[in-house]
Amino acid sequence: VRVLAAYAQNTDCALAGLAFAARVNLDRVLLGTRFQAPFGQSPFAFQRGLAFEKSLRSNDYEPTLGLLRAELKDPLAAPRIENLRSKHPGTREGMLLRSRDTEALLDLIVKGRPAAPHLIDGAALRGSVGGLEAFFEADALAARAGGEIRVAEVKSFPKVDERVDADKLGAALDQVAIYILLTREVIARLGGDPLRWVSDLALLITPRNVGMQPTLSVKGVGPRIARAEKLLASVPRVEDVVASVPDGLSFGPVADTKAEEPRRLAALHVLADRVGTAYRPGCLATCGNARFCRERAFCSGSPSLLGTSTTRVLPGIVSLDRAEELTRGVAPGAAEAHAAALLATAGRLYDAAASPSQPAAPTPARRYA
Amino acid sequence: MNAFDATLAVRAYRAGRGLRTSLFRHRRLADRPLVVIPWQLGAEPFAAAAIGCGDRPDRLTLAVAGEPRNRDLAFAALLKFARWFNPAFEAHFGRVGSGPQILVANRGVVDLLRRLGRRLAFLPTDGPHAAAPDLVRLGRHLLFLWLHAAVPGQQLLVALTDLLDAHWATALSEVERQSLAALDAYIEPPAGVHGCAAAAQAEDLAVGPVPPGDADKDLAPLVEEFNRARASRTDAAAVAPLLPPIEAHYLPMTQAAWELLWRCRGRELRYPEAASVGRRWQEDCEAYQRHLDWLAKSGLRRTRQSPRQAAMTLRNLEEAQRLVVAEEACDDPLRMAPYILENKAVRGRVVHVNATHTEPGARRAVKRPLVTLASAEPCLMPAGKELWWAGQPAGREFVVESVAAEPGGGSRVTLKLMTSSSTTGLPAVGSIACFSVHSTAPRWLAGLPATDPWTHRAATPPPAPAPIEDEGERS
User: Fold this and answer.
1) Would you place residue A1 in the very low, low, confident or very high pLDDT band (cuts 50, 70, 90)?
2) Does ipTM come in above 0.90?
3) Which of A197, A276, B79, B383 has the smallest number of CB atoms closer than 10 Å to its CB?
């Protein structure tokens, strides 16, 4: 999912598109070079997540069911729980089997069969990203007999005083929105009414306070679902990306950890030159290639180095060096004229205020009678 | 980001090092700051695995919990920290104009201190799970510091990334500027190295609170070994001999962050302090004294504000923000420059002062002195706009009387002082004067109605603050 999330944010980057199409994990391509991405996860963070999920499954899912009973207002006297995670391995083949099982279980729910599950742990949803098949792993799908399906996500960040960290909450809700979208697609394939069957209220299960006591939060994610739909639809078709790439290019020589670093980087430079990249500072958080692209942006003096908030102020200016010349009052070209006037004035004002020849502070007051 | 910030950023790019965005330092740096460098264990939100602290560059002490997921061990480390922090923090009590300053690396640390404060502040000091009173006191100090940290321009809890970011322009993006090491490397790169390259090299240096994943990978076997050896014991006598390997893991990390913090502080100290810093420091000290007074009574604070409290807080924060922006601009010509660019200020040479100009008033003729400026820049201000003289921003307003473009791109601006009182002065002819939209005069702040309107009444009152310990799990 991380790979996909990273790609979904960089859809304008041809290099990332190529890597996604070729199923190359960019986080690993530059392993062992100075551009290696610092995405190593702390084992303690990992343990915390696992421990929390395990506590939810303990005692035949009793903690989870307790939360759902209160939320769905259904006693769930004889709950039927399907754990797809333990049934199939975490490989691609396993995911395929899990997605088939998920579909069959959702079919039971839609048809109102008595064997329909109340809770599916580790449902796999099949989706298409840029024309490529991808699997998404939803933590839990819950349903009341004859009622709606709810999508739940398990996170290990705490809820204190009825509040959670806003950034983490946003990311989790975006994730649930994608799952709701995909569940609706499955329901539509099965002939059900997706809007009636799948609620747009996201369930979030997090620990409460310091310990691992679970608590459930509900949040409507309608707008996020619409946004996720738009995002997935806007991903360019991978076939088109691949078709636009010249033949004979491969990530192979770059990822070869036995080769010398300069040779590997040179191979990636050739690749980036031929395919094209689109660096933004936001890439640093998601893409394993970002540090490499950052150095390229730095060497070429690209304004994208400073981020979109700056490039917006520098329309029509090709490089930071050129922008610097404009702040010194160099005559602008036609495309630069709009930004240049402000830059030149700003440069003059800076020089006037920063140079010691000017009086540093306003002169003292002269009182008038 | 506006055109002025962009100009500074591209100049900083060309220069290959940081560029000062102000002539002065707009925050007080206390002589003996309490420097705190806490480390989390992975994503454990409510415990510190290790805390480095000290108030002198050559005296770093480290408190290590060993297994911070265990309540007793986490509290033992925090207690060690509290016994140093509380006396140092409270030492200024009762001394007017004196207050403590806590120096941390970044906003992540500020947030961690809040979470620790939330955990400790409401613990019971009696009953079966009694906590040490020092811990509770520490928690209440930390909660106060975090609440006060929201006040714009405050100086009790200073995050160095914020301080450097406010005083230096760099060619780093917003994300990269959150790393103190990268910011420091860009501002002062080694000779012959461009700031971007220096920042890229430095950015992996961790300053906390979340340690890099690789550091935790090295730590994991140490913690496992520690837990095996202590065999569920948590008493100090049993645990203390087992801690050295874990201390040895944290010490070099803390030492590196420690040196970085003091180096950054030392560099900022070289710049002269701005004129209005003293006023804000006074306010900080008053807030600090109020906190200690309150602590002597009960010291409890709500964890969720009532609607009335929230409205008042917002109003006060907005007023503080307005004041700090105005003071920084009026103290510092370089901070005023962006406002001139945005036509919110005009600077120029005073070419004429008519101190005896009179106008017909409501009953009799009143004195309305006129000041004429010759500015080198075009001035796009409408007549009637209210401005304040930056030399006396707490005085009465001037109103733009007329603006005329001069040949060569400059402009001639005439301003009218809207009082005949002599408490607001006039600039001298021939001097450089600046008039801006910034005023530091106290404003009338709207009060709230005696009863809350129905739109702002909560269905249920916010719950009383309670401890957030989970008594079920005490491994």
Assistant:
1) low
2) no
3) B383
